[in-house]
Automatic annotation (TrEMBL):
Forms a one-to-one complex with cytochrome c. InterPro entries: Ccp1-like, Haem_peroxidase, Haem_peroxidase_sf, Peroxidase_I, Peroxidases_AS, Peroxidases_heam-ligand_BS. It is an enzyme of class 1 (oxidoreductase). Keywords: Heme, Iron, Metal-binding, Mitochondrion, Oxidoreductase, Peroxidase, Transit peptide. Its EC number is 1.11.1.-. This is Peroxidase. Belongs to the peroxidase family. Cytochrome c peroxidase subfamily. The keyword Protease does not apply. One of its GO terms (biological process) is hydrogen peroxide catabolic process. GO terms for molecular function: cytochrome-c peroxidase activity; heme binding; metal ion binding. Residues 207-228 are annotated as: Disordered. GO terms for cellular component: mitochondrial intermembrane space; mitochondrial matrix.
Length: 373
């Protein structure tokens, strides 16, 4: 029988399993889970491997060039370049199926490249999608994911974005495979893919972002500072247009991934299952005892019982503040409610500041697992 971690029971089982595992073995376990997902996919699906890209803009000029140099040299081109040259897809004509192919390519690459961090690039893809979108200012009417301005300095060099080159580099080959997709669309779609492939909720996603120039770079300081508390969090997220419930739902993404001393200066994962999307962030925040970590680094909290998990001061503020805590309690109790609210608010985040064409349809992508069933 196949174990699907997409079901609630599966999520709880996987969460329980990983909950009981000691600090040192977490990375290996997560790698195994991701590899299991890969095996499940490979043994059941014929869809994704076939989803080699069919692309656009190199198009006829490239084919003509190839023909001129001589038929033989055509064989020295990669399959990807040939497919790109033959494709007629553009951002204007791309269909749901075209975007599902991009989703599949990202999801497959997540499975193939399982040596990174806890076994997956998925958490850092979520962080890339969030940091490219979270620069939005409702009052200044600029920022957000539309222009993919993090491709340029100074935005790529803002302290909050340290380490995100790993995510941008990971997606470079996907961009080559699908040259018709804008970078803003690719980064946000990658965030959606990452959440869904880690057994998170289905996130509705729309295309329509258009790459801009470095003029679109936003001023430093629009993203939150983890060393601060509730006033700062509210100031930053209210600027984007979120309310308290939405803020708490969004930060639940800290169920996955980890902090890195060479990036933010903070250290460690928030949960025992950093590559499975769960409501464990809230459960642990509420139910574990947290104390300040005694170390040569910025102030952060560690769980008293295993000393293997962490909370940022900004995470801890969610239980210090009464209004925020109310939602932490709700989401800790009810994973389905968290998934529902997170899906809505993450879509809202990714759409901040984007001028979609009137009537543009949100897409729901199928996970690799679902396509294999
Ligand atoms: C008060 C708000 C927030 C603060 C202060 C904050 C801060 C941080 C910090 C310091 C890191 C560690 C970076 C590193 O060292 O690699 C991090 C990682 C992460 N954040 Fe947040 N964050 C916030 C909100 C969010 C939101 C809204 C999302 C998504 C919806 C998110 C998703 C993530 C993910 C997935 C990671 C893990 C990345 C990895 O594993 O490389 N965060 N965050």
């Amino acid at each position: 029988m196949k174990l699907s971690i997409n079901s609630l029971a599966g999520r709880q089982a996987s969460s329980l399993l990983t909950r009981s595992i000691a600090r040192s073995s977490v990375p290996a376990v997560r790698r195994n889970l991701f590899a299991q997902a890969a095996r499940r996919f490979n043994s059941t699906s014929s869809e994704a491997p076939k989803s080699k890209p069919i692309q656009s803009s190199i198009s006829l000029a490239a084919i003509a060039g190839v023909a001129l140099v001589g038929g033989a040299s055509y064989y020295f081109l990669s399959d990807e370049t040939k497919a790109a040259a033959l494709s007629k897809v553009t951002a204007e004509t791309a269909t749901y199926e075209d975007y599902q192919k991009v989703y599949n390519a990202i999801a497959q690459k997540l499975i193939d490249e399982d040596e990174y961090d806890d076994g997956s690039y998925a958490p850092i893809l979520i962080r890339l999608a969030w940091h490219s979108s979270g620069t939005y200012s409702a009052s200044a009417h600029n920022g957000g994911s539309n222009a993919a301005s993090m491709r340029f300095k100074p935005e790529s060099a803002h302290g909050a974005n340290a380490g995100l080159e790993h995510a941008r580099n990971f997606l470079e080959s996907i961009q080559k495979q699908f040259p018709w997709i804008s970078t803003g669309d690719l980064w946000t779609l990658a965030g959606v893919t990452a959440i869904q492939e880690m057994s998170g909720p289905t996130i509705e996603w729309r295309s329509g972002r258009v790459d801009g120039s470095e003029k679109a770079c936003t001023p430093d300081g629009r993203l939150p500072d983890a060393s601060q508390g509730q006033d700062h969090i509210r100031k930053i997220f209210y600027t984007m247009g979120f309310n308290d419930q939405e803020i708490v739902a969004l930060i639940g993404a800290h169920a996955v991934g980890r902090c890195h001393t060479d990036r933010s200066g903070f250290d460690g994962p928030w949960t025992f299952s950093p590559t499975v999307f769960t409501n464990d962030f809230y459960k642990l925040l509420l139910n574990e005892k947290w104390e300040e970590r005694n170390w040569d680094g910025p102030k952060q909290y560690e769980d008293v019982s295993t000393k293997s998990l962490m909370m940022l001061p900004s995470d801890y503020a969610l239980i210090q503040d009464k209004q925020f805590k109310k939602y932490v309690e709700k989401y800790a109790k009810d994973c389905d409610l968290f998934f529902k609210d997170f899906a809505t608010v993450f879509q809202k985040l990714l759409e901040l500041g984007v001028d979609f064409k009137p009537g543009s349809t949100p897409y729901k992508f199928k996970t690799l697992d679902a396509q294999g069933e």
